[in-house]
Each structure stands twice: as C-alpha cells, then as structure tokens.
C-alpha cells in the first residue's frame, strides 16, 4: 500500500525542502505540535486512570463477599445504597431503552440510591463476554444482571454462570407472583429453580395494515391461502432468529395440534429423530408454503430487523413479533390502521427473565433493581408504555392496582390479554429449538 | 488534452455514489415512515434527535471516551509505527525480514479471529474492561496501517536532511524535532487519522475487550444499526460521520498549519 | 562517548526502535494462536488439554462447508478485483483532474471513515426490494411493482455484499495509489507525452506498472478483509450458503461453550488461507523493495 504523499517530496525538491523546513517549523510551532501530542497522550492515560479508578470504586462499593445477609431485605437495601448496577440486555429497542432510562433508573436512584447502568447489546455478545470472564476466573465481574431466557438461560445455568437461587429474597416476588405457575417454574422447558425472576410475558402476534389487507388468516390453511393471494409479499425471518423460530413454531403447532406440539416443551434428551417425529407434518406444510413466499422461499431475511424494515416499506404485507407494534404506531413508523391478529390454533408465548451473574459485583443492587422491575407500579408502567404483558398474578394485587391495570386503554394494535392467554402455546424446550432450526435448514428452505 | 471529460464524468459519478447514500441516511434521521412507492418521506419525527440529545443522557460522556480512546490509539500507533519504520528503513539488523513480515499479519488475519482468541488473554492480564486494554487492542489492529504509511514516508524522506542538520551542529534531539518530524508530518498525520478511524469504528473487538464497561460510540450505535429502527440508526449514523469528519478535519487543519506548503506533500 | 560505545549503541538502536511493535505483534499472535489452539480442542480454562482434529474434521465434513467456502472466495475475489479496477480508474481520474484536497476528502476519505454496517444501511435503503432505486424505476415506468426488482437482501448472487465492499474499497484502492499516480503524471507522464505516446498508452505503459506493487497489496488487503469479516454477509447474504465468517460467528455465539472449538476450527481454516495470502503479500513487498 503506497499511501505516501511524500514520494513526491522525495523525487522532488529535496534541497528546497531542506531550506524551507527549519524555517517553517519555528520553535513556537514545534511547542504547539508537541503539546498537542502530549495532551493527546495525557488524555489517553487520564482516561485509563479514570477507568481504573472507577473499577476500584466499583470493587470497594460492591458487596464484600459473603457479608450481606441477602435473606434480610433491609440489609440488602442498606448494602445496595450507592451501588451502580449494570444491567445487560438487548439494546436494539429504543422504546424499551427509553423506558428504562427515563422511568426505571430515576425511580431506583430516588428510592434506593441505586444507579442503573443499562448496557444494551445483543444477548449473544453478552453471553460471549460472560463466558469469557467466567473462563478467566474473574471474581468481580462487570455484568450484574442480565435480561435472558430460553436456551441462553439453560446453558448459562448449566455452566454455572448464574447466581442463585435468589427469587425468594425478593419481597415483590413473594407478594405478587404466582411462584407455582408453569410460566414461572419453567423457562422454555427448563426448570428455573429460583435462578431468574420474570420480567415480562411475550406472545407471538402478527400484524397487517388493515387499510391494505382486508382479511387475516385464522389458521395455517388460511395462511397458505393468504400467501397465495399475496404471492412474494410474505416471508419470515430465518429460524435462528428468535422471531423466525417462534413463527414457524406457531405454524407447526397449528398443523400438528397444540397438545402434540407441547410435547416438545418437556422433551428430555431430544434427538433429531424424536423431534422430527413430532413436527414432520409441520415441515411438510412449511415446504408447501415456499413457492408463495418472498423470493420463492429460496432465501429468507437473516433477522427480524430486516423483516421489520421490509414490512414498513411495503415490500411485505405482514409482519410478526413478540408483542404488539404499539410503540411503532405511536412514533409514526407504522400507520394508525395497523391491526394485530393471532391464529385460532394459537401462537407460542414465553416469559423473559432477569438473572444475576455468578460473579456479579453488585448483587445487592441487582436484587433491589430486579425487585423494583416486578413491583406493581413498574409492571403497570411497562404495560402502559411498552404494551408488555405483566408477570404479576392479578389475583394477588390490591383492588386498586388491579383496577389500574384494567383501566389501561388498549391501543389500536393490542389484543385483549385474555384472548392472547387463551390461545397461548408453550414454546419448545431450549434444547429442542436448535434441532427445529437445523431441521428447517435441512428440509424446508429451498425445498 | 483528451480524457479530461471522461475523468470528470467518472469523478462526478463517484461523488454521487458517495454523497447520495449519505444524504438518504441524513433524511432518514428525521423520518418515521417512507413507504413504497413514495419518493419522499411521508411522516417526519424528531425521535432520532430526542434519543441522541435527551434520552441517552450519557452520550456526551460516551463520545468523550470514544474520541479520547481513538486519539490515544492514533498517537500511540503513530509513534510506535514511526519508530518501527525508522528501524526498517535505516538499519540492518538480525530478523529484519521476519519483523517486516510480522507487521503485516494483523492486516490479513481477520480482527474477529484475534478478538475471539484474545478475550481470555486480556482478562487474565487484567486488561479486560479497562480503557487501557481497549487502547492496546485497537492499537494492534491499527498498527499495520500506520507502519505501512510511515515506512513509505520515512523511506521517501531519507536521512539526508537529518544528517545535514547534525553536521551543521544541531544535537540529535533538535535534529529529530526540527528536521525529521516536520518532514514526516504529512505521513504522521495520515497514519494518525487512519488509526483514528480504525479505532473509532471497532465494534466486536471493543465489545470483547472493553465489554460494555468501556462504552464507546460504536458500541452504543451498533445495536441500533442492527435493530431495524432506521430513524434512530440513521441519527446515530449521522452523528458518527459528523464526529469522525470533525476529527479528520482537525488533522487536516494541523497538517495545513504545521507543514510547509513548499514541501510538495500536497497534491493541490 | 568512545567509538566502540557508539557502535554498540548503533547496533542496539534498531532493536530499541522495533521493541514496542514487537510487543504489540506478539500480543496479536498470542491471541490468534490461543484462538487457533481452541480449534484443536485445547482449552486449558475448561481443563481440556488434549489435542484433537475432531473439530476440523467436523467443519470440513459439514454438508454446507464447501458451498460456504466457495461463496466466500467468490465474494472476496469479485469484490477485490472490481475494487482494484474501480480504484485505478478513480485514482487516475482524480489525478487527471489534479483534484483538490477537498475533492479527495469527499471522494476518498469519507468512504474510508464510514463503518461497514453503516454502508449496509445505505445499500439497503437504496437497493432493497422497495429501496429508492426500485421506486425511481417504478416512477419512470421501468418496472411493474414490488418484487420486480432483485432486492439486495439475501440475494444468492451476493451482489449487495459486493456493492458494500466496492463502496468502501474502491476509494481505499485509490487512496493506496493516488500519491504514486500524481507523482508519475507529474514526471514520467509528461515526458512520455512529449515523446508522442497517447495519454492512454502512457498510462498503461508507464503509470500502471509503477503502481503494480501497491495494487497487488491493496488487492490482498481487500481480499483478506472481505474474506474474514462477518457483518456484511450476515446482514445481506443468502440463507444458504452462508459465508465462512458467518458460520464461525454463529458457532462462536452458541451459548454452549464447546461450540467455541468448532468456531475456532472454522477460524483456523480462515487463518490458514489468510496466512497464504500474507506470504504472497510479503513476497510482493520484497520484490517491490528490490526494484
């Protein structure tokens, strides 16, 4: 690579340069250059120093190992005071990030003097970082608690990367959450055992622009007809992306039946054969869809984000996701005429959770923050702002709190909670998911 | 002379290819919906601006840290590269060719491979999650660019001038600062700005080494770029370009100010 | 200082000068070797120290591996070849116009400093199925409607990926050659012209040969980069076949830590190919220096 602007100088006027340069570079100028360079270096080392300082602070501010009696909530509150807690979670949702930084974080600061540091990044990247730290035996980890669920929870818990059980320490968990419900006991089929506290409930929904699309499909057969009607204008994210996997799960469940599909949620030691035995008719159905999909089903968008933009621009007539696109309608990305629907054969749903890293530096503050997230007040606020289905047991709430939930008006894209929960299918177990994804790659795409 | 028109046409076409996408993204930063088949956006939104300047309260801090890290990388890699280039150009020493070979390796081996391998090493060394660790990792990736530039410039400048200056009585330090450095200045700034750019846009490496504790702008921006929320992604994109360009022009300004116009380093 | 002292100091000077670089390069090599060893199943932090070729065999044995390798090589070859051609033309055109520094800043520096993922955003907003280009074609009546334009997203030909790399790398190649060209056009070019050679002929017989070394180096850098980075093919590539770095990245991200070995085996194969490239690069570097 010849980036040299100086070649010219070399071939050219060496003599002229020699006589010019010393003059051009007066002492004053030299001092200016040198001090700029020095300032740069200083800035760099100041930053380094500052980071070390904050590390040290975090370490001294963190729980001195074993000294906090976590069972004593007052002690936890006391220990959490002044701590900065790092919450790692998916960072791609602006409405959610805004809610966390403008509602949750100020509340934590004001009530408990806990500073919340939201680190938004892809869950896979978070786990890469966590496993790297665990492998290296880091004791004061940088991750305090994580927004997590499914196979990620399963594998981190299996690998011993999580701290717990901790949910019984949380007053709000004990008071407002039905700890015996399957959604709290199991996460994608794997037992939670107190290693994570629920954050929100999600359920697959589909949506269209009602101004352009008059009728929506109610089951897989109608969906096939829908795809034929809108040939090349329907697709789904490649399974492997969680929305893609969930969507084909809905279709497979519609074909094989809810009860048959839910066998997958408790399947132990799944193999390709055992999973295939259950979902084969579903795979057959998915193959029959291909000719009518975008690009003839020969290729699929790599992630839900791509599908979102294709839908917003009108390349696709239908989109899907966990939860209603209410925020997108409110901020003008999608039109007011957007409407959600689900299949009468049901759609898959799951809970997502918060788990504490084994080597978290600020466990007390993490407990306080998690407890706050599952408080009636914050759950209500999430429902209002983000249309997040609450994880609380409505029967355990006070009269007033329950009424507050019921009083929240449904947005244009939101389906009534009862309707969703009545058509809810439990997702396949964590270890089954990759098998379904592989089967799709081997037997559906391009076939 | 012939060909001038063709050259003009091509450059114009190239500029269109560079600027049109930038303009589109700039428009997207203020747009909330722009459906088919409209050629102009349909609804506008201040969401991007609000996100940048109101909601993300620590953005100023993030930017300061990012720019600081990248400046430190620029300074460090340029100095290290200038030293290496000097050795390669003016000295014979044992293992020189091996050394020369090893300096181009980071060019050719994907940074992701390095990042995946080095994560655990940095954690063991206590460098993970520190600004210093991030600066070090970025410098490694930026160094080959800087060394390539500096080798060319150093070879071109030669030692003549410095020797001349020393013969005429200047001490080695003075000769270095008053003759050699000014002569190398365009190269130094070129190396520094390329190192700066390389550092400023590192995502995966920053993530694994600095892991969220060291928040850089690229780290905050990338989830949005991948999120499908184009309003926010574009707003971050525009700010990214503005900051990078700002620093680039700072380097250009320094060059203009401190280099003599008659050294012919400019292709004006 | 005695003469001998000075001599010793002179002999040590180069080592002092290269020391910082050596340290940094050693860290780099250590990181890469550490990663490559994981591909052989050596992960001391998990108590695994046994050497095994299992992961490499598995990687090569994958049904989709050959297709992926082919796809990656094809994308890199096309991108780097076109980037070199485009870069030469751009560089020559800018030189021909004696482009001002400002023009060069816009034409070369802006693309250099734009992150690849941002360029993906550009390309998608222009060339997706409903991007601005198909809209313009539709408005002009040149295409029928949605779906008539081959979207860049997921296209099996990978033209979107190539487009992103070209946007970034044509200016990079120009960046690598423009100083030489400017210099040549000032000196030899004019001489050749006065001797009666046509502008085009003097370009091919004088300028291009002088740029050869820089061009080969630029080609290899672009090739290695487009071969090794995952972001662009991940976002724009077809579902099958996936580019090699995408395969590695997906395996690396798998929450099961043992899949890291597998990811690293795929990385190892990439490193091998890149090392061959590095050796070629080095030979070019040597030749050019001897000249």
UniProtKB/TrEMBL annotation, chain A:
Pfam name, any one: SBP_bac_8
Protein name per its UniProtKB record: ABC transporter substrate-binding protein
Organism (species): Raoultibacter timonensis
UniProtKB/TrEMBL annotation, chain C:
ABC transmembrane type-1 domain mapped to chain residues: 69-281
Keyword Transmembrane helix found: yes
Record organism: Raoultibacter timonensis
Name used for this protein in its record: ABC transporter permease
Source superkingdom: Bacteria
Record-linked Pfam families: BPD_transp_1
Gene that produces this protein: potB
InterPro entries: MetI-like, MetI-like_sf, Sugar_ABC_transporter
Keywords: Membrane, Transmembrane, Transmembrane helix, Transport
PROSITE patterns xref list: ABC_TM1 (PS50928)
CDD domains: TM_PBP2
Topology versus the membrane: Multi-pass membrane protein
TM annotation in the entry: 12-33, 71-94, 106-129, 165-185, 261-285
Localization per record: Cell membrane; Membrane
Protein family (similarity comment): Belongs to the binding-protein-dependent transport system permease family.
Main location: membrane
């Amino acid at each position: 690579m010849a980036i040299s602007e100086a070649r010219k100088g070399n071939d050219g006027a060496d003599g002229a340069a020699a006589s010019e340069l010393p003059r051009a570079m007066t002492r004053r100028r030299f001092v200016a250059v040198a001090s700029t360079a020095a300032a740069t270096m200083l800035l760099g080392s100041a930053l380094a120093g500052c980071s070390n300082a904050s590390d040290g602070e975090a370490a001294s501010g963190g729980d001195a190992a074993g000294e906090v009696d976590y069972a004593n909530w007052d002690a936890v509150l006391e220990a959490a005071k002044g701590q900065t807690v790092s919450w790692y979670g998916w960072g791609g949702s602006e409405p959610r990030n805004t809610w966390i930084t403008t509602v949750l974080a100020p509340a934590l600061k004001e009530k408990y003097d806990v500073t919340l540091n939201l680190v938004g990044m892809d869950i896979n990247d978070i786990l890469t970082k966590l496993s790297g730290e665990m492998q290296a035996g880091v004791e004061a980890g940088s991750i305090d608690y994580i927004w997590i669920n499914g196979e990620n929870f399963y594998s981190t818990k299996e690998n011993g990367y999580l701290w717990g059980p901790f949910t019984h320490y949380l007053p709000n968990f004990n008071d407002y959450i039905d700890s015996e419900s399957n959604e709290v006991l199991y996460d994608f089929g794997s037992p939670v055992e107190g290693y994570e506290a629920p954050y929100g409930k999600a359920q697959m929904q589909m949506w269209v622009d009602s101004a352009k699309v008059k009728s929506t499909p109610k089951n897989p057969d109608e969906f096939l007809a829908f795809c034929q009607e809108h040939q090349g204008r329907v697709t789904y994210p490649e399974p492997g992306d969680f929305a893609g996997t969930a969507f084909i799960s809905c279709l497979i469940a519609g074909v094989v039946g809810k009860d048959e599909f839910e066998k997958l949620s408790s399947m132990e030691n799944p193999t390709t054969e055992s999973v295939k035995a259950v979902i084969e008719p579903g795979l057959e159905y998915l193959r029959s869809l291909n000719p009518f999909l975008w690009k003839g089903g020969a290729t699929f968008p790599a992630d839900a984000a791509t599908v979102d933009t294709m839908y917003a621009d009108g390349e696709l007539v239908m989109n899907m996701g966990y939860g209603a696109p209410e925020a997108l309608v409110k901020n003008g990305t999608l039109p007011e005429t957007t409407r959600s629907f689900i299949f009468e054969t049901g759609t898959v749903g799951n809970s997502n959770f918060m788990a504490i890293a084994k080597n978290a530096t600020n466990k007390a503050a993490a407990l306080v923050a998690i407890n706050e997230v599952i408080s009636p007040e914050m759950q209500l606020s999430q429902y209002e702002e983000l249309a997040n289905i609450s994880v609380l047991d409505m029967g355990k709430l006070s009269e007033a709190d329950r009424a507050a939930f019921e009083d929240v008006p449904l947005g244009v894209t939101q389906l009534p909670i009862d309707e969703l929960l009545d058509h809810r299918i439990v997702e396949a177990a964590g270890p089954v998911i990759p098998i379904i994804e592989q089967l799709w790659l081997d037997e559906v795409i391009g076939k | 002379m012939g060909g001038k028109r063709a050259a003009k046409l091509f450059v114009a076409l190239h500029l269109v290819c560079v600027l049109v996408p930038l303009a589109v993204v700039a428009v997207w930063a203020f747009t909330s919906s722009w459906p088919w088949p409209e050629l102009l956006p349909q609804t506008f939104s201040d969401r991007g601006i609000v996100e940048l300047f109101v909601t993300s309260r620590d953005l100023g801090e993030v930017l300061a840290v990012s720019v600081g890290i990248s400046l430190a990388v620029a300074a460090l890699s340029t100095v290290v590269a200038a030293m290496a280039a000097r050795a390669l150009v003016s000295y014979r020493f044992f293992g020189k060719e091996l050394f020369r070979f090893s300096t181009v390796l980071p060019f050719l081996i994907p940074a992701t491979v390095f990042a995946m391998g080095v994560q655990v090493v940095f954690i063991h060394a206590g460098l993970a999650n520190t600004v210093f660790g991030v600066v070090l990792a970025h410098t490694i990736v930026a160094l080959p660019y800087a060394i390539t530039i500096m080798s060319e410039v150093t070879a071109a400048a030669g030692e003549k001038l410095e020797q001349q200056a020393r013969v005429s009585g200047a001490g080695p330090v003075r000769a270095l600062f008053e003759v050699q450095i000014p002569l190398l200045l365009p190269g130094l700034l070129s190396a520094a700005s390329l190192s700066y750019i390389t550092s400023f846009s590192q995502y995966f490496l920053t993530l694994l080494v600095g892991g969220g504790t060291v928040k850089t702008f690229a780290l905050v921006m990338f989830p949005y770029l991948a999120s499908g929320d184009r309003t926010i992604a574009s707003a971050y994109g525009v700010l990214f370009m503005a900051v990078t360009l700002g620093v680039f022009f700072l380097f250009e300004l320094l060059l203009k100010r401190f280099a003599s116009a008659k050294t012919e380093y400019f292709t004006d | 200082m005695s003469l001998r002292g000075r001599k010793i100091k002179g002999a040590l000077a180069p080592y002092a000068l290269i020391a910082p670089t050596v340290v940094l390069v050693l860290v780099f090599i250590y990181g890469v070797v550490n990663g490559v060893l994981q591909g052989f199943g050596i992960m001391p932090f998990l108590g695994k120290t046994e050497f095994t070729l299992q992961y490499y065999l598995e990687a090569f044995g994958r049904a989709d591996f050959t297709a992926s390798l082919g796809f990656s090589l094809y994308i890199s070859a096309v991108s780097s070849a076109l980037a070199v051609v485009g870069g030469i033309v751009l560089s020559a055109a800018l030189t021909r116009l004696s482009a001002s520094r400002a023009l060069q800043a816009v034409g070369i520096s802006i693309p250099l400093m734009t992150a690849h993922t941002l360029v993906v955003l550009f390309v998608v907003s222009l060339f997706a199925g409903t991007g601005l280009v198909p809209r313009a074609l539709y408005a002009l009546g040149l295409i029928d409607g949605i779906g008539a334009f081959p979207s860049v997203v997921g296209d099996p030909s990978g033209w979107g990926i190539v487009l992103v790399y070209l946007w970034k790398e044509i200016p990079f190649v120009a960046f690598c050659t423009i100083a030489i060209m400017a210099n040549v056009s000032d000196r030899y070019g004019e001489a050749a012209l006065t001797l009666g050679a046509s502008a085009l002929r003097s370009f091919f017989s004088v300028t291009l040969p002088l740029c050869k070394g820089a061009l080969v180096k630029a080609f290899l850098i672009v090739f290695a980069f487009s071969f090794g980075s995952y972001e662009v093919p991940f976002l724009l590539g077809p579902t099958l076949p996936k580019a090699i770095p995408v395969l590695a990245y997906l395996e690396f991200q798998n929450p099961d830590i043992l899949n890291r070995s597998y990811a690293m085996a795929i990385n190892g194969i990439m490193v091998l190919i890149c090392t061959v490239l590095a050796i070629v690069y080095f030979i070019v570097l040597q030749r050019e220096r001897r000249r």
